[in-house]
């Protein structure tokens, strides 16, 4: 399914910060921006995967090891990226974990951990980079949502709640930052065939059931999420803000 993709001259030389960049969709986003000539800095907790991706991917790429649940560490990591490659023109809030959990077993600590992993860091990353975007006269912030709650998916209530809240965060920050020409959008992936998904949950039976719900027959490669992110970061999307951009093959 991979095709000849567009180039975005407006992304050449742009500084891009990405959370959760070492694997899965995040790694595809890192590679996509690097291929456009962007200066890419990403945050991740996995040292080995971060180093391997950076070594294997052509382009101007750097990273910081950081536990995004620790807001002080998050701020420090973003500050270190800024000191090396400059203030962010683009922020991709990608990091998340869709670990399964039964609603009956969720404790307050589990709930808080899932909110911190899947939602809280997005706001504090925006808070950290927005002043530089304001000073620069604009920027693009892209939050990663999920169609799991749109589909009324079960088996991960804290995750689904956090991902639903991402849309509220996008809408309100688009309003607050729009006067500064900072665009804020949500990319909404469907079931994306990362290695993690293939290893943990993509059984033949589950895939068949899911494909029956898609309008398009093909499984979704992470590259297609990255392509949507590139578009929203580029000057081509200058009038796009406060909205959801679905990459889910028409899943119902």
How would you characterize the overall build of this protein?
There is one protein chain. This protein has helices at 24-35, 47-56, 71-85, 108-136, 157-178, 195-200, 204-213, 222-233, and strands spanning 15-19, 39-44, 60-65, 90-93, 139-144, 182-189, 244-247. It has 252 residues and is of the alpha/beta class. β5 (139-144), α5 (157-178) and β6 form a beta-alpha-beta unit. α1 packs across α8 (222-233) and α3 packs parallel to α4. The longest helix is centred in the middle third of the chain and has 29 residues, at 108-136.
Can you tag this structure with a few keywords?
single chain; 252 residues; alpha/beta; Rossmann fold; 7-stranded parallel β-sheet; 7 strands; globular
Short description:
This protein has 252 residues and is an alpha/beta fold.
- In round numbers, the mean pLDDT is 95
Number of domains: 1
CATH architectural group:
3-Layer(aba) Sandwich
**Based on helices, strands and strand pairing, what is the structural class?**
alpha/beta
Q: How would the blueprint of this fold be written?
A:
Elements: E1 15-19, H1 24-35, E2 39-44, H2 47-56, E3 60-65, H3 71-85, E4 90-93, H4 108-136, E5 139-144, H5 157-178, E6 182-189, H6 195-200, H7 204-213, H8 222-233, E7 244-247
Parallel strand pairs: 1-2, 1-4, 2-3, 4-5, 5-6, 6-7
Helix pairs in contact: 1-8, 3-4, 4-5
